[in-house]
Design a protein that fits this description.
Elements (H helix, E strand, L loop, with lengths): L2 E3 L5 H15 L6 E4 L2 H5 L8 E5 L10 H14 E9 L17 H6 L7 E7 L2 E7 L12 H8 L5 H15 L8 H10 L9 E5 L6 H7 L3 E5 L29 E4 L12 E7 L7 H14 E14 L8 E2 L2 E2 L3 H4 L2 H10 L2 E9 L7 E10 L8
Parallel strand pairs: 1-2, 1-3, 3-4, 7-8, 7-10, 8-9, 10-11
Antiparallel strand pairs: 4-6, 5-6, 11-15, 12-13, 14-15
Helix pairs in contact: 6-7
Bound molecules: S-adenosylmethionine.
Length: about 375
């Protein structure tokens, strides 16, 4: 992959940008082919050829007129084969530094570019925004998130950089990122709730189905166990027909992951776990099974271990959705609500540190609950 980059004059800004670039693209210093200066951008230089990714410095905010600003953006865009990471204002800055100018939100400018597919604000440092704009076309997978929905959800999640990364991982490794919009909030939340370095950690994904989170956590150094009881095996040759339900043997994608095809209530963990997470699964099992699961979570986690749950609720209520694959599994009153889950988790020996509901998720019929709890001591016996 070829990169072209402009340098930032402000050192703090440059450090922030370099950290962001390494998060997004790895260590690119060796692959930067051209460091372009303003002259090269303004007066097209035959030596400056196209790059896969163009990383812009703060030159854009130094353009003295709206025309010069738009030309600069167009020139950066023209030089990029795939993407531009641009540093600019997305709202009027409180303090405009000497020699800097603001004309309009950068995301509005970028939205008018030809061939733009996905665009998200992946970082903010003081008044400046870092926007990653892409030309890459949609994968064509029937279940893959559309570019419009990606753009929409990037503005909704609290973790747009993690969303960008997990969408890329999902598409590269699984062929799709689920076009189920709450997932664009749930996966980044799980990833943000765990340390960056997971060396020595053992984690379990309960009801993993087909999702990119185990792959990203294995990349962080964790041993990951996935458990899913679905009868349908997801085999690589059929990837075009996958959705997020089913049993995938993740070890075929990453040897740090071990996958078990069985109901979680019948699973014995091979190790004491540091974290158990379950994304949009526990609301799909009957309340009796849920209570058994919560006891198992407490038994399998070490003292201080972390439990992360996300759950679908009926919109504008705290009622757990009582459906699994389109069928009601029990009555709503038998199934219970979010406060019942919180009580069950506390009663099983957890401290609930976070519990909140995301309402009004775009293009979704459900609201989503997020629960983070920590296993109180002493060390439990494995069951
Ligand atoms: C809605 S999908 C969610 C998949 C994945 N967690 C995700 O984030 O997209 C629910 C998954 O839970 C699995 N599941 C349901 N009941 C289960 C059980 N008792 N034990 C293990 N997995 C179960 C299903 O097979 C399905 O793959």
């Amino acid at each position: 992959m070829a990169f072209a980059a402009q340098n930032n004059r402000d050192l703090g800004e440059r450090r922030y940008r370099d950290a962001l670039v390494s998060e997004l693209f790895g260590n690119v210093t060796d692959s930067i082919l051209q460091v372009m200066d303003l002259t090269a951008l303004v007066a097209p230089d035959p030596d400056v050829t196209k790059s896969d990714i163009v990383i812009s410095g703060e030159e854009l905010i130094r353009q003295p007129s709206y025309d010069a600003y738009r030309d600069h953006v167009a020139r950066l865009w023209g030089l990029a084969r795939d993407a531009v990471l641009i540093c600019a204002y997305d709202c009027p800055p409180v303090n405009l530094p000497p020699g800097a100018f603001y004309f309009e939100p950068i995301t509005r400018t970028l939205a008018r570019l030809p061939n733009l597919t996905e665009c998200s604000v992946v970082g903010k440092h003081r008044d400046l925004c870092y926007v990653l704009a892409r030309k890459r076309p949609h994968t064509g997978h029937a279940r893959d998130l559309s570019p419009d929905d990606f753009n929409l959800m990037s503005a909704v999640t609290d973790h747009p950089l993690l969303l960008r990364q997990v969408v890329d991982t999902a598409r590269e490794r699984l062929g799709f990122f689920p076009a189920q919009l709450p997932r664009a909030i749930e996966y980044p939340w799980v990833l943000a709730s765990l340390p960056q370095n997971l060396a020595g950690w053992a984690l379990a994904d309960v009801g993993a189905g087909v999702n990119p989170v185990p792959l990203q956590l294995a990349e962080r150094g964790a041993a990951v166990y996935t458990v899913d009881g679905h009868h349908q095996r997801r085999d690589l040759p059929d990837q075009a027909a996958w959705n997020e339900w089913g049993f995938l043997d993740y070890s075929s994608l990453d040897k740090r992951i071990t996958s078990f095809q069985c109901p979680f209530e019948e699973w014995s963990s091979p190790a004491r776990l540091d974290c158990i997470y379950s994304i949009s699964v526990i609301e799909h099992v009957p309340a009796r099974t849920r209570r058994r699961w919560i006891q198992l979570f407490a038994a399998q986690l070490r003292a201080g271990g972390v439990l992360l749950l996300t759950m679908d609720l009926f919109a504008e209520t705290s009622l757990l959705r009582n459906f699994s694959e389109g069928m009601a599994i029990e009555t709503e009153s038998e199934h219970g609500d979010l406060s019942a889950v919180v009580d069950e988790v506390r009663h099983a020996g957890f401290e609930v540190g976070e519990c909140w509901v995301k309402r009004n998720v775009p293009r979704s019929r459900v609201d989503t609950a997020f629960l983070r709890a920590v296993r109180r001591g002493p060390e439990p016996n494995l069951v």
